[in-house]
Amino acid sequence: MQKKIKPIPLTEFKLRYNLLQAPLETNPDIKETLRQAAVLIALVQEQGELHVLLTRRPTHLRTHPGQVSFPGGKVERGDASLIETALREAAEEIALYPGNVEVIGQYPAMKTFTGFEITPVIGLVKESFTPQLDPGEVDELFTVPLSYLLQAENRQKQIYQRHGIYHPVYFIRYRQHLIWGATAAMINRLCSHLII
User: Is Manganese set as a keyword in this record (predicted)?
Assistant: First the structure.
């Protein structure tokens, strides 16, 4: 039986994040031109414990319908940076405004088979906020305790073959939610980064 991981206090999270080298996984070898996107991996404090904020996309969307994701989306012409893209999208999708987010870093972009190159931006929510979901983008908003995600047995990896090449695909089950694909891979990278 694996020992349960204790919640990481906010100050320790920042220290670990800044001191440790982020692990890198190879991206799929995708030759086509990819659309640039950015997502916000937002961490909120709930009852003294850090939680990761996630959304579930509506089933009517053309890309990734019904999937669990982070707030985020495609880079728009007016965005000055990928960080600005992630923050703008979080404001539009769930009313988490840029002034309420302390950005602490970002990870290298992750390529997807669905035609995107997604940059994860990591941010801490400074104060509690009242979410307002854009029904065209978000069906549900929920959080998962970081301590749950840090437990290795809660993050599963399976190897799948695509066009003769094997790729890892991550899966995380939390209550009624199945988190998988790029979102689960980003969570896995964050957790691998934080575990000493």
Answer: yes
- Residue 194 CA neighbour count, 13 Å, CB half: 24
Q: How far is CA 95 from the centre of its chain?
A: 17
Of the candidates 56, 61, 94, 51, which has an alpha carbon nearest to the alpha carbon of residue 179? 56
Cα 101 → chain centroid: 15
- The CATH class that applies to domain 35-148 reads alpha beta
Inter-residue contact 134 to 108 (CB < 8 Å): no
Specify the 3-state DSSP secondary structure of 10.
helix
Q: What is the pTM of this model?
A: 0.85
The encoded tokens of residue 82 equal 């990928």
Are the CB atoms for 185 and 109 separated by under 8 Å? no
Spatial separation of the C-alpha atoms in residues 131 and 24, rounded to whole Å: 32
How is the chain split into domains, by residue range? Answer: 35-148
pLDDT digits (tens, 9 = 90+) for 103-145: 999 998 888 777 788 999 999 999 999 999 999 989 999 999 9
Nearest to 103, CA basis, from 128, 78, 120: 120
